Amino acid sequence: MAEASTAPPDQRVPESIQHSVLAEFAAGVCRDIAGGLLSTTGDDLVPFLEREVGRLRQALEDPFALGEGSEPRHPPVFDRRGRIAVATNPVVSHRNAIAPPMKLVRSGDECEFTVELPLQYQGPPSKLHGGYSAVLLDEALWKAVRVNVSAISFTRELTIGYERPVPLFEPVTVLARVTEVDGRKTFAEGEILAGGEVCSRAHGLWISPRPRE
Ligand SMILES: CCCCCCCCCCCCCCCC(=O)SCCNC(=O)CCNC(=O)[C@H](O)C(C)(C)COP(=O)(O)OP(=O)(O)OC[C@H]1O[C@@H](n2cnc3c(N)ncnc32)[C@H](O)[C@@H]1OP(=O)(O)O
After folding, report:
1. Kind and range of the H or E run holding 57
2. Ranges for the Thioesterase domain (predicted)?
3. For a substitution probing ligand 1, which of 207, 210, 213 has the most ligand atoms within 8 Å of its CB?
4. What's the rounded Cα separation, in Å, for the pair 182 and 152?
5. At what angle do helices 45-61 and 17-39 cross, to 10 degrees?
């Protein structure tokens, strides 16, 4: 994820808001195509693809169809060196078609995210692939560390417990919090919940790299 820019406000956005909205809309269409390719077969396939391409074509021809005044969630920014930084994060970026995207709803001592996973994340039928549960938890626990510890840290260890399957096609909650800070080491834990029940638990260690000599 791109770190917030310290550039003056008039230099923060290197493209028009409309283009940023269009890019995020296009990422959404890509997500819908990715899911639709797994659930649409035979005679339905071509009409499905035509519909999705049509949505994109319409957005290109008439950007206002995307909703006047709508704001991009993750517009590119200039970084401290003046380079364009696009939010590439594969879990939370609205501009990355790979990301579901998982949305931050609360940030503080505990971080809370919500996400609804479509078919392209399936492991067992209608359930989330376990590796992807780890991806969601890694991101959420990293965020809790980022919010509560000043130095940027990287995941050194991550342990996941799978207690119940995580359902697809419905909102799930991901919670994360720091449990201990010890010098460069930060320990954190978190859970994925569906319908108020814990599905997966995680704990791990994040380390900020040794300062350069
Ligand atoms: C740079 C600018 C970027 C700007 C923009 C950033 C944006 C960033 C966006 C990222 C968004 C990603 C969100 C999801 C999070 C990821 O996915 S992060 C990516 C996955 N993780 C990685 O690639 C990390 C790979 N590992 C590494 O690079 C290095 O191991 C680390 C983590 C930097 C640590 O290296 P190190 O400083 O050499 O660590 P080391 O000296 O071995 O250990 C440090 C201390 O921890 C202790 N320790 C090590 N392991 C353990 C353990 N298991 N238990 C207890 N203690 C331990 C050691 O004994 C040592 O203790 P002391 O000797 O200090 O007492």
Report:
1. helix 45-61
2. 128-196
3. 207
4. 14
5. 180
CA of 94 to the centre of ligand 1 (A): 27
Kindly report the CATH class assigned to 102-207: alpha beta
- Interatomic CA distance for residues 203 and 193, integer angstroms: 15
**Residue 139 phi, psi dihedral angles, 5° rounding:** -65, -45
Two tokens, residue 158: 């991550």
- Which ligand 1 atom is the nearest neighbour of the CA of 1? 9
Tell me the pLDDT of the chain (213 aa) as tens digits. Answer: 344 445 455 556 788 888 999 999 999 999 999 999 999 999 999 999 999 999 999 999 987 777 667 889 999 999 888 899 999 999 999 999 999 999 999 999 999 999 999 999 999 999 999 999 999 999 999 999 999 999 999 999 999 999 999 999 999 999 999 999 999 999 999 999 999 999 999 999 999 999 886
Which residues share a beta bridge with 154?
A: 207
- Ligand 1, residues at Cβ distance < 6 Å: 1, 3, 138-139, 142, 152, 154-157, 184-185, 205, 207, 209-210
**Segments making up each domain of the chain, as ranges:** 9-77, 102-207
CB 131 within 8 A of CB 202: no
Cα–Cα distance measured from residue 53 to residue 199, given in angstroms and rounded to the nearest whole number: 37
CA of 175 to the centre of ligand 1 (A): 22
